[in-house]
C-alpha cells in the first residue's frame, strides 16, 4: 500500500537538506515541478520511475524511497535480498559441483598417466644396435 504522507515527509526533508527548491529538484530529476509538488503535498502517488530519478538528486537509495513510499517494506526487502543471496550461493554451489566433477576427472587422468608411466618403466627393452 502506497504511503503518500511518509514519502512526502521524506522527500521534503531530503530536498531541504540539499538546499533545493521544488523547481530545482524537478529540473535535476527531469520531472515536472507539479510532480514534485503533488508528491510533497501527498496528493498523488509517485511512480517507481519517478522515485528512481529522485534517488540520484537526493543521495538516497532507491530501496529507501521505495520503502518510504510503501511500494516495498524493509521486511520485504530483507526477504528479497536473502533470496537473492541464496540464489547466488546456489549458483556458486552449482559451479562448485561442476568444478568438483572436473577435478575428479583430472585426478583419474593423472592416475591413468601414472599407471602407464609405471608400466612403461617396467618394460625392458632389448636394444641391439648394429647387429
TrEMBL record:
InterPro entries reported for this sequence: Cro/C1-type_HTH (IPR001387), Lambda_DNA-bd_dom_sf (IPR010982)
Alphabetical list of CDD domains matching this protein: HTH_XRE (cd00093)
Gene3D superfamilies xrefs: lambda repressor-like DNA-binding domains
Stretches assigned to the HTH cro/C1-type domain: 11-65
Keyword DNA-binding in annotation: yes
Pfam families recorded: HTH_3
Keyword Hydrolase attributed: no
GO molecular function: DNA binding
Keywords associated with the record: DNA-binding
PANTHER family on file: HTH-TYPE TRANSCRIPTIONAL REGULATOR XRE, TRACRIPTIONAL REGULATORY PROTEIN-RELATED-RELATED
Name of the protein described by the UniProt record: XRE family transcriptional regulator
Highest classification ranks of the organism: Bacteria, Bacillati, Bacillota, Clostridia, Eubacteriales
